[in-house]
Every structure is written in C-alpha cells, then in structure tokens.
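Hi support team,

I've been running sequence recovery on a batch of backbones for a student project. Most finish fine, but this one hangs at about 90% for roughly twenty minutes before it completes. I'm not sure whether the input is malformed or the queue is just slow. I've pasted the structure tokens below so you can try to reproduce it. Let me know if you need the job ID as well.

Thanks,
M.K.
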C-alpha cells in the first residue's frame, strides 16, 4: 500500500496505433525506485528516455502525446491509467513506433497482462500529492478543476447530442479494485459521421470496431453493444485518470470535469504545478503514521491490491 512499485518481469505488447494505424511493439521493463514512468522510441537513432510528466505533453487533440516532432509518443493515456490503477510508479516503456498500441481501446488488456505478469514492491515509500487549494481551468463552457478531498475522487460529466449518450455523469472513488471493475474496460468512442473528417486530420487511421465504440446517428454500431450502459462517461474517467497521473504522484483530491478533454486536463495539471501553495508532497509512510497517531483510518491512501 505504501511502497513504490514496478513490474516483476519484462512484458511485450504488439498492436495497432488507433490514430497512426501503424503496427507497434511495446516492451515494458522493471525499473528501480525513483525512476518514474519513462518512455523511449527505440525505432529512432539517438533517442533518449522521456519521463511521463505534464510539462512534457505536446499535442492534445483526441489523445495525449508526450514530446513533439518526430520523436513524440502518442496516445499514452490508457496505458498511464493502467499504471496508476495498479500503483506502478516505476517502469521503462520502449516503443518501436509513434504510438502506444490501442489494444481494445481501453485499459483492460494492459491491466490483465500486468496483473498476470506480477507487480513488485520496491524498497522506497511512494509519495502523494495532497491538493490544498482549488484550481480550475475553463474554455468555452468546458471546465476542469481539482480541490481538496480526503481521497482521490473523479466527478465527470459529459454532454453529447446523441440519443445513446445524451448527458452522463459518474462520481468515481479511486481504489485499484474500483478502477479494475468499474473503469478499466470502458472503451474509447467516436461517431461514424466524423470518420472522414478525423482521417483527413491524420487521426483514427487504425480505428475499428475492435478498438472503439462506434455510433451512427441513432445507435451503437458494434454488434456486441456496450460493456456498461454509461461506458462513455466511464471512459472519460479513464482518460482523466491517465492525464492527471502526469502530475507525477498519487493524488489526494477531488477532480471535477464538465465536457472536458485531454487539453483541459493538461492545462489543469500545469496550473497545479505552477501555483504555489496548491499542493504539498507527503510520503505514504508519514501519511499513514499521521493517520494512526490521530486514531483515524488512513482512508486517503488508495488501496492497491
């Protein structure tokens, strides 16, 4: 519960990038305490390790991208959500292409393999970012904010002019078990009418019914239907968790979003990091000790199985 973690052994994923359409192989390797989550494009000469943090984010149109230019790594949010959901703080991610493989469009495939391979506790305690002030960003009626709370909670609302989606809201209280059961299998989604436009923008070249929920004007096109009746807002929570994990710590605070996306999530993270007094960093050991001394349950420490 309080120690930094990595994976027990090497893991390889192979799949298609949902936006690039390119086949990519990703190797995950154990890392020592303090390394963090780091990425490297092994298909490029002289590539360097790039730490996953909010200040390294480049493009945020329909995905979260680390870095810029030819060495950028696209669509990291579903993988980052899986790491956060399992409490993995340190890991090397080697990719031989421009984008993390999308798998089924959720974090479910990553979660399954990571758990099967095994997760290893390291010999240093993890650190938490405790939010101490309310920070908010907004743009054209869309907004995201983070405020003090005694645990990590994500309160998400989405609004789409589609008869299947309409307005959906879900309040999610983070724990590893809750993430795996309620959020990790929720897939990304898109409208059939937008396909041509998005492809002209260089996006969703690898999109299919195997890695996304697709909707026509009235219904879900996928023959198997939805995994949850509100799968759309659940996926928004998945994206939000992956994006705010780029703050670099496990978080104690409440995140509320309204019609937000990757760009606003990143702006929120950058504003938190740039606002003095908006947070404090506390080790898990000190957090647990303080809770015991005050004779209260240390509920702020997320349970990670």
């Amino acid at each position: 519960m309080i120690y930094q973690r990595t994976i027990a052994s090497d893991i390889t994923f192979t799949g298609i990038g949902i936006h690039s359409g390119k086949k990519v192989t990703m190797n995950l390797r154990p890392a020592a305490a303090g390394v963090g989550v780091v990425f490297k494009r092994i298909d490029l000469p002289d590539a360097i390790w790039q730490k996953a943090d909010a200040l390294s984010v480049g493009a945020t149109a329909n995905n979260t991208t680390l870095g810029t230019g030819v060495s950028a790594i696209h669509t990291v949010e579903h993988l980052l959500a899986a790491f956060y959901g399992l409490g993995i703080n340190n890991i090397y991610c080697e990719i031989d292409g421009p984008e993390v493989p999308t798998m089924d469009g959720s974090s479910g495939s990553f979660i399954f393999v990571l758990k099967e391979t095994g997760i290893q506790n390291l010999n240093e305690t993890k650190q938490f970012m405790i939010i101490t002030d309310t920070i908010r960003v907004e743009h054209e009626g869309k907004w995201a904010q983070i405020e003090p709370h005694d645990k990590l909670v994500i309160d998400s609302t989405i609004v789409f002019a589609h008869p299947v989606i309409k307005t959906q809201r879900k309040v999610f209280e983070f724990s590893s078990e809750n993430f795996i059961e309620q959020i990790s299998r929720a897939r990304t989604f898109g409208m059939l009418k937008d396909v041509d436009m998005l492809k002209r923008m260089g996006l969703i070249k690898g999109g299919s019914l195997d890695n996304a929920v697709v909707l026509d004007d009235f219904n879900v096109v996928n023959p198997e239907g939805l995994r949850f009746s509100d799968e759309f807002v659940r996926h928004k929570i998945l994206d939000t968790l992956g994006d705010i994990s780029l703050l670099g710590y496990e978080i104690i605070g409440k995140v509320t979003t309204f019609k937000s996306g990757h760009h606003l999530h990143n702006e929120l993270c950058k504003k938190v990091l740039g606002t003095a007094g908006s947070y404090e960093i506390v080790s898990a050991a000190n957090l647990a000790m303080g809770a015991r001394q005050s004779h209260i349950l240390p509920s702020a420490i997320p349970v990670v199985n």
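--
Follow-up from support: It reproduced on our side and the slowdown came from queue contention, not your input. Residues 231-244 form the longest helix (14 residues). No action needed from you.
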